[in-house]
## 1
Amino acid sequence: MPRNSQVPFNKYELYNQAVQSAAEDVKFYNKIYKKIRKSKKPMILREDFCGAGAISCEWVKLDKRFKSCGLDLDREPMDYGRKHYISALNNDQQMRIALIKKDVLSPGLPVADIAIAVNFSYFFFKKREVLKRYFDNVYKSLNQEGLFVVDIFGGTQCTDAIEDKTKHKNFTYYWDQKNFDPVTNEAYFEIHFGYKGKKYEGVFSYDWRMWSVPEIREIMLEVGFQDTRVYWEGNDKTGNGNGVFSVVKKGESCESWIAYVVGIK
C-alpha cells in the first residue's frame, strides 16, 4: 500500500471495535445457559436486531454443532456482515449461519435455544404494549428450555446531557446523550467517531425509551417466562465496569451501570 494512501472511514468496523465484544459475549451466553440448564448445551442462538451479525458469527465458532440466525430490517449492515464477517468464516461455519430481513414483531420467528436483544436495541420500542408484544413473540419462538437475554443500562448520568469520549488506537469514540425527558423516560443518543483528523458527527443515532430492570422483569413474567435473573457488571480498581457479570438480588446506585436481564422459559 502506498505510504500516503488513506484507509477509508468505515462506520461498521469502528462500531465493532468500540462497542462490541462479540467473541466474549457468546462465551457468556453459553456459560449462563449451561449454568441454568445444568450443563446442557444450547445449540441455536438467534440475534434479534442483529445489524452486521458479529455475534451470530462468533456463536458458530464456539462449537461445530452450533447454529445461529440474525434478524434485522436494515439490509445495509447485514450486507456488510455477509461481505466482511460471514465471508471470513470457514465453509462449515457459513453453512450454520443465516442473516434474515425480518420484523421481530412479525409471527413465526426462527426457533432458538437462546434469543438475544443486545446493544439496548429493544429500547426502540417506546410503548409497553409493543415491548410486551415483542417479548411474547420471543417466548413463543424459544425451545422448551430456552433463554431470552437482553442488556440494559442506567444510572444518574443517564439523565444528563453529556458526551463521553474514549480513545482507541486509531480512532476516538464519542457517546453523546443529547437529552432526556423525565415525563416519558425518552432519551436521544448519538455516536460520533474521530478518525484521521476528522470528527464524523451523528454516525449512529438512537431515539429510545429508557426501560428499567423491574419493568423488563415484569413483562417477561407476564408473557410466560417462569423466572428471571439479573447479571450485574462488577467494577475494576478504578471504579469502572470490568466486563464481569454476576447474578445479583440488589444492584448498586451509581452514575452509570450495565446489566443483563435473562428470561427463563
## 2
Amino acid sequence: LTTLINDERAVVWVACNITRRHLLEAKLQYLSETDELTGAYNRRKLLDTLTQSFRLFKVREAPCAVLLMDIDHFKSINDRFGHLAGDEVLRGIARHAMAHIREGDIFARFGGEEFALLLPNTSLHAAENIAERLRVSIAGSQFLLDQDLTVTVSMGLSLIHAQDQTIEGVLHRADDALYTAKHQGRNSFISV
C-alpha cells in the first residue's frame, strides 16, 4: 500500500500472524479425515485416496491393493466383555495395524468392526505378505490386558484391475474375498 506521509511517498506494510488459522485448518482437516474412536483414517479419507490411486492406475498402471479386514466374532466380544471393551479392541486393532504398516499406506476404519488398508504401489505378492504378517501379528497380540481374549481377523484382498471402471469393483471383490475367508473358518485372508 503506497501513501503519503509528511508529503513523501511511503510504503506501508501490514503483517498478520496466521499461525492460529493454519493450526485450526490443520485440526479441521484431521477431524474430517479421522475416525474419532480409533484414530485411524475414516471411510471418506480412504475412498478419496482410493479414487486418486485408481486414477493413477489408469494413467500409469501403478499397482494398488485394497485389503478389507473384519474382526472375527466381534459381537461375542461385546456380549461377553461389554461395549467399552469392544471399543478398546477396536482402538487396539487400529493402533496395532498403524504401527505395522508402511509410510504411504492408508489404514482406515471402514465401518463398525471393519477396517480397510490401501496399499499403493504394491504387487499382489507383496500385499499378500503384508496381509499375512498383519493377520498373524493381530492373532498373537493381547488387546484386553485383564481378560483372556484372543482376537483374530478375516481379510479380503484385491488389486485394481485394468478392466475396473470404478473403485466399487475393487471394493466389491475385496468384500467378496473377505466373506469367503469368514465362511472358510475365519482368521485368514483370501486374495482375488
## 3
Amino acid sequence: MARAWTNLLGKDFMLGIGAAEKDSLRGINFITMGENIRSYKLAWKYLLYAKKNRFTHIYCREEKMLLFMLIYNQLFFRIPLTFCYELHHLMYMDAWWHKRLLKRIEYVISITRAMKDALIKYKYPNSRILVAPDAADISLFGKTVSKNEARAKLGLPLNKKIIIYTGAINEPWKGVGTLYESSKSFDDAHLFLILGGKPHYVDNFRLLYPNRPNFLLLGHKSHAEIPLYLKSADVAVLPNSNKSEVSRISTSPMKLFEYMASGVPIVASDLPSIREILNEKNAIFVEPDNSKDLVFGITRAFEHPETLEGLAKQARLDAEKYTWDKRATDIAKFIQSS
C-alpha cells in the first residue's frame, strides 16, 4: 500500500515506520522513527515531523497513537491536519476513548462493509466512510509458469494433488486447525502445504497437531516466493472460523486476493467478510469450523475440474478490481472530493 501511495503521490507521501528491512522498502518514501517506542511518544515525533515538513494529512491504522496525535495537536501543535483512520477491527468500538477519537476523525477507511455498517450504528456519518478492501500486487502473478514447472522449481511432487494455505498459523480464527483435521480424510496422494508462521509458532502448532505425512508445515516464506507456491497448487483454501468477530465481519485477508490473482481454484469458509469479495461464480464455499464439509469442498474441487477452471478464471478476472494502486487512487479521490 505504501508503494502504491508513493507511486500516486510521489514526494508528497511519506511512510513512517519503526524499523524494517531496507530491501522491502524499495521504491517507497519512508522515514524511520525507531523501534519499541510507546504510542504517546511516537505520536509526538510524528507531529513534529508533520509540522516541519508541512504535511496536510495523516493516515493511520493504529488507534491509540492516532488518539494521542489528535490530543497533542489540539493542545500544543494546532497544525491544520486532516486525520484519516483505516479501520481493521471493532475491538475498541465501545471504549470511551475510541468514541472520542471517532468524533475528531475526518475520514474512516473501512476494510469491510460490515464494519462500515457498525460505524453508522455508532452515529458516524455515512458520507465520511469509504469501504476499501485489501488488495494484491497483480503483477507478481503475471508470469506464465505451469503447475509442473512451479513444482519442479520448488522440489514438490508432480504426482500429488496439492492443497495450499498461506498465512498465519498461530491465530485460531484463521482455521488452520480445521484444515489439519480435514487432512486426515485424505491419503498420501494429497499434500497439504502450509506456508506461514515463525519457527516458534510452527513448533507450537506441532505440539497441538502431531505430524502427518500429507500435512507439511513449511514455515515463513518471503513474499516473493508466494506466487510460485500458489502456481504449484491444485486448490487454495481459506478456512476462516465463524467463532471470532474479526473473522466474521472484520477481516479482508490479503491471501484471498493473492489466491484470486494466482488463478488457483479457491475453497473458502462461508462468512460475511469473505462473501463481500467471493461468490458462487468464483469460489466453492464450505461451512466454517466443519472439517467434514471442508473435505467435501476440496473433494468437489478435484471431482469437477472443468467447473473449477471456470471459477478460477473468474476469480482471476475479479482480482483486477483489487489492486493496491487502484485502492490508493480510490482513497485519495474519496478524501479529496469529500
## 4
Amino acid sequence: MNRKELAFRLKAARETVGLSLVEAAKRLGYPNYQTLSNIENGQREIKVSELANFARIYFCNLSDFLTAQSPRKEYAILWRNPPGDDALKKQTEREIFSLCEQYHMMEKLLGIKSGKGFMEVTRESVKTGHAINLLAKDTATMMGLGQRPSCALHKVLEQEYGVKILYYPLAYGSAASMVHDDMGKAVVINSNEVPWRQNYDLAHELFHLILWKVFTLEEMQDKLFFSDIERKADSFASMLLLPEDEIFREIDQIMENDKQLTYSDIVDVAIDFGVSAKALLYRLAFINFIEWEQANTLAKDEDLAEISRQKRTENLEPRRSDRFISLAVRCLRKGLISRGKFADLLKIDRSDIDDYIEGRGMMEAEGKTVEVMAS
C-alpha cells in the first residue's frame, strides 16, 4: 500500500472516532499535532510500531489500515429530530459511533456474543393501528416485559437482546438508533431528558430496531414517508408502555374506590407506568376512556402540570448505561484494559477510579477462582 492511501485511512479512522488533530496527537504521544498532520498528508513515513499505536487509539485492527478493504463499513444513524446543522450532526454521529465501537470493543475482549434477534415483521405488521397494537402486545409478551414494561425494557434490551443503550447529551434531537453489521443494535437516548421521557424514547427507538430491515434507507430519507413512520413509532411506544388491559384495570380500581378520577390520580398512574401525564392522557383517549378534546385540554392544564412536578420525586441525575460501566469494570478487573483506558472510557480522572468503582458497589479485584461442574 502506498503512503497516500495509508494516510487517507489514518485520517478517516481519526475522524470516525471524533478526535481532533490536537487530541489525537496527544493520545498517540506525538510532541505536537504537526507530526500527525504530516502523517495524514502523506509527508511523513510511518513505522509499523506506530501503526499498532494508531490501531489501539482509534479502536481498529492493523488490517483495517493495511488490507485492500475500507477501514470502516458504511453505517446510518436514524435520528428523531436530527440537528439542523449538518456539521454538528456529523460530529455528533462520529462521537456516537465511537461510543458504540468502545462498547463493542469491550464485548469482544470479554468474549460476549451478540444477543437474540427480534421477531420477524413485515410492512403488514405496521399497516394499521390495530396491527401496531398487536405488534406491541407480541413484543411485550416475547420480551417478558410484564405489567409495567417501562420498568423492564432497558435491562431486557441490554442483557437479552444485546442492544447498546447509550445516554448522550444531545444538543438537538431526543434519540437515535442504529443497526451495524459488526457492532449490532444501538440506541442513543438524550441524557438531558427526564427519565419518563427517556422511557418513551427508548420504546420509540425499539420500533425502529424491530423494523430496521423492512424499510430501505432511501425510503427513510423521504421526509413524508419518515414522518408517517415516526407517527407509527409513537403509537407503538404508547401501546407498549401503556397496555390497554393494565390501564383499564388501574383506572377501574381507582373509580371503584373513589368514584372519581382526579388530577393526582392521573399523575400517580403515569408515574406507576413510567410515562408522562400527557402520554397517559392521549392513551386514555385512544382507548376511548376520555374524549380527545378533553385529553388535549388536560395536556395543557397548568394545575395538572404543577401536580406532576410536585409528585415527580425520581432522581434526575443524568442516566448512564449500567452495562457499559459494568463491562468496563470487568475488563479492568481482568487486566484486559489499563486503568488509563478505563478512565478514558468513563470520562473520569485516573485518580478517581477507585472511588468511582467503590461508589458503584463494584470490586476491582477478581478474587479466588471457583471450580464448576462441566455442563
